[in-house]
What does this fold into?
Amino acid sequence: MARTKTYSHLLSEGRIGPMTLANRVVLPAMDMNVCVDGEIEQEDVDHYVARAAGGTGLIITGASAVAYPIGATSTKEPGLSEDRFLPGLKALADAVHAAGSKLCVQSTHHGKVARVDILNDRPMLVPSRPDYSYDMSALADNTMDELMKMGAVTQGKSGSYHEATADDIAWLIETWTDAALRCQRAGVDAIEIHCAHGYVLGGFLNRADNRRTDEYGGSLENRARLACEVIASVKAAVGDTMAVIVRVAGAEYGQEGGLTNEESCQAAALFEKAGADAIHVTGWGRNPFSNFTDGPLPNKVAAYLDLATEVKKHVSVPVISVGRMLPEIAEKAIADGRIDFAAMGRQLLADPELVNKIAAGEPERVRPCINCYVCVQENFYDDTPLCAVNPVLANEKLLPLSPTRQSRHVLVVGAGPSGLETARLLTERGHRVTVVDKADRLGGTLWFSTLTTPDNERLLDWLTVEVERLGIDVRLDTEATPQLVQEIGPDHVVVATGAVRPRPDVPGGDLPHVHTGDTLRNLLLGSAEASDGSRLLRTIGKLGKLSGVTKSPEAIRKLTRTFLPMGKNVVVIGGSLVGLELAEWLAERGRSVTLVEAGKPLGLPMAMPRRWTAVRKAGELGVTLHREATVTRITSDSVEFTVGENTLSAPADMVVYAADTTAGAPLAEALATAGVPVEVVGDAATVGYIEGAIHSAWSFAATF
Ligand SMILES: Cc1cc2nc3c(=O)[nH]c(=O)nc-3n(C[C@H](O)[C@H](O)[C@H](O)COP(=O)(O)O)c2cc1C
Ligand code: SF4
It folds into this structure.
């Protein structure tokens, strides 16, 4: 691990217009949805201050509505249109300054996604009435509850449009300028003008949304005209008292007429000419239901860096790049002169202390974002983001962790994410912790999940580093029995043994080629013999034991891409998160996979945008998907099931049963009966995967 790595470029001072920043790390806009009728509350202040105190050079607020409530998407976003918003803005600016950072307000009119306009029966302001509709078939993978929560935001109304007239355009420029001046009066250091993500200025900029024939439509120069007029007017009003940053998509994805990188470069040059002090390059997947994971929240690391690099060739002002800009990538990109600043969104939700940690020479201590999309799912419900790995998000009062008043010896059974996080927190608070796990490695199911979801490996690495740093007594290859517990003699036991994965309760469910997650893992890791004679499992297991390859998820991922000696046909029963990811993983390795799910939605409880992408990708990889299917029988070479009136069968050399995963902690029951004080966390208490594991660890360990 890169313990001595320095980040001299990322940590060097930088300038944007009149503003000097302590370093090149920017918190990009992420709406927290905690305002009350547009007014900033203490929760918002606490959230931004945590990131400022963590060393972030520039804090950008979530999208704030210049004409609030007109053109707003939520009553929980900051408003900029009236003086009643001034106290909140000023309190935020003062607090961010006191924490050593600078504050930028992201300003926008949400155009065709202004949900408050829909609610208030106001038509939404657009360059042209949309002549397309989105493919929303992905919603088949939502539960009724999720659909109702999404629909409730606009009370089920669908909204109407109003094509901007010359008067509207003049009003918008004036309103935006007035909003900028209000930010200036509040002591804000910069304003970001949002020209992306389909909001009104972004809509004018691209050909798919702008079909106007006046001087605001047609050529790129015409389409950029409104944004340039807003920028010029704002700049003229604020002069050198504030920096003006412009956010633009380096490219738009998934629909004909979306902004191209070439157009984006031209637009950036026009924005500079109009007065922009910096260009912030984002990306936008035009249909949120099918390509949200292309943008604005990309799956790919450094997703827009190449686009930003191109933009930089066309401007002389600084360029900010966003989109999974990991610190080491950002450092190199700045050193190479490709960009000037790196915005790190979700990474700073996961760990607000990122800059302080890398400045202290401890980059390995940065709690990683695992790209799970749990945070942004809440935005679909107009709610406050949660973070799977950081329960402190939107609940900053959980910190600082208070030292325990009575140090106790706690035995944690299970070295999966809930066990390790519990051990970490308890140790930080002054308890003495012993961790035991019957496996030969840390991570439990988290380790296994890294095979299909490489981003999870970052979390496991981090937990491993923390456990080492804190000197926690970890005993692997150790099965926790009541006798062992008695021998160790702890004051308290925490059972974190994970979920229970039963075999399928259908004829043939006990055949040797039918695997549960547990048997599959044991075989892959070489800790059990393959009872079905499966060459794959035996070979990989043996190979792993001999070469140590199974210690490295990356090595297994690579090896199995070229070497997967198993039958061609696999049936995965259960299409939730685990089953879906496994089906994709096998399909990527050339297997013919059939996924059979009892319910309608697939991929639950994967967070929404990621789920939609995963289901689409499974289809693209050729996985045959059967929803609302009931498995009736497993034979030596097939799985039989019914869908409605139809009886179907899929060939199967191997069957993986990924359904009916339930909570269960028999050890805890036995210990409790014997009078040992015991707590159950993670999947053993309630199946909640990584988010549930980490959050349940905090619920117990932050106060024990
Ligand atoms: C919870 C959440 C809310 C967001 N809200 C906004 C927003 O208000 N305005 C905006 O321009 N982008 C918004 N974004 C996009 C981020 O600014 C950023 O561009 C995106 O997360 C990609 O960067 P990352 O990979 O570093 O997270 C939001 C992202 C998240 C995760
Ligand atoms: S919820 Fe997931 S994607 Fe969002 S910041 Fe946390 S770890 Fe990253």
About this structure: The mean pLDDT is 94. The CA atoms of residues 118 and 356 lie 43 Å apart. The chain has three domains: 14-397, 400-500+662-701, 514-657. DSSP finds 26 helices and 26 strands in the chain.
